[in-house]
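Field guide to reading this record: the first block holds the primary sequence, the second block holds the structure written as discrete tokens, and the final block holds curator observations. Each block starts with its own label. This record concerns Amino acid racemase, catalogued under organism Kaistella jeonii.

BLOCK 1 — SEQUENCE
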Amino acid sequence: MSYITLHATKLRHNFKVLDQVFAQNKIEWAIVAKLLCGNEKFLKVLLNLSDKEICDSRLSNLKTIKKLSPKTQTIYIKPPAKRLAKSIVEFADVSFNTELATLELLSEEAVKQNKIHKVVLMVEMGELREGIMVRNLMHFYDEVIALSNIEVVGLGTNLNCLNGILPDERKLYKLNRFKEIIEENSGETIPYISGGSSVTIPLIFKNEIPFGINHFRIGETLFFGTNVYEDSLIAGMYQDVFTLTAEIIEMQEKPTIPSGLSGTNLTGETPIFSDDEKGKFSLRAIVDVGLLDIDHKDISTIIPGIEIIGASSDMLILDLGENSENLEVGDTINFSMNYMAVLRAMNSDYVDKKVETEMVPFEIGTNEYLCLN
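BLOCK 2 — STRUCTURE
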């Protein structure tokens, strides 16, 4: 069976890098754990790094986090479904909200459970995913603070996830100004502006984070060391926190193009082949992972010279080239993975999950150590 490995020491390194950056800029941050799909083995690694705040968009995952670490503050980071109000109050200490009718149900449940449920009001800032329209924000806030057992602890916004709209200093300044206006008109205090996710991190290095933006929600950059804003990598962070390993179950020399009439494959595609490849052969391998578990376009081989040819539901086809590693049937091949590859593999019951705690050299230095490529 194929398996995905979480390299715990590399993840710890990435965590320390980010923790230093946020501490130097007086910004609190919470880990977004939805990539781990509630896997207890991997969540324990994460909670050993930080058990203060964990965010997720799946209620079942928050239940698992609460089971493993009851003291950890759990944050539900999408507008809750009304039918989930009882469980949201039970398992999420904080939830992100945009609908008054849902907040009324959360209030009722908080009263029943004798809890104060904390909420972040999400504001529409141009991305057109979840968010309260600015023209309605003041009235919305007034309605919410009148609800029993509901405490507004922050304003937030989401950018880049649907339409790719990037954060900038002007948008974040506006968000902070909305908070100030609400506080001036209501006499209440809103402690946090959760205005940052992984895509906002590069603005820290450009000194473009306005005063008042004091909370970030970080997933991708922690796990992949990516500069999401510019679709590049961050020097000084590990990009290979996760690897996929699959076993060779067949290895034979075969023609480079198929023969016979060509129809559509299982994904509805009709592959096209060049006549220049007729009569040519290559050493091909099949490994035990397929489209049920990953999209082969989201992974790449770590061994130079090996090319991914394609995939079916349960098998991945490789061209081994010169087979520089002298691979044989029964050997394994490692693959690097992007965010969507990890997410899909974590959702697959057919991919085992392993933790590796190998020692890797690293050093946490000053801001000069962490630079954007």
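BLOCK 3 — OBSERVATIONS
The chain has two domains: 8-235, 242-261+272-356.
The two ends are 37 Å apart (CA to CA).
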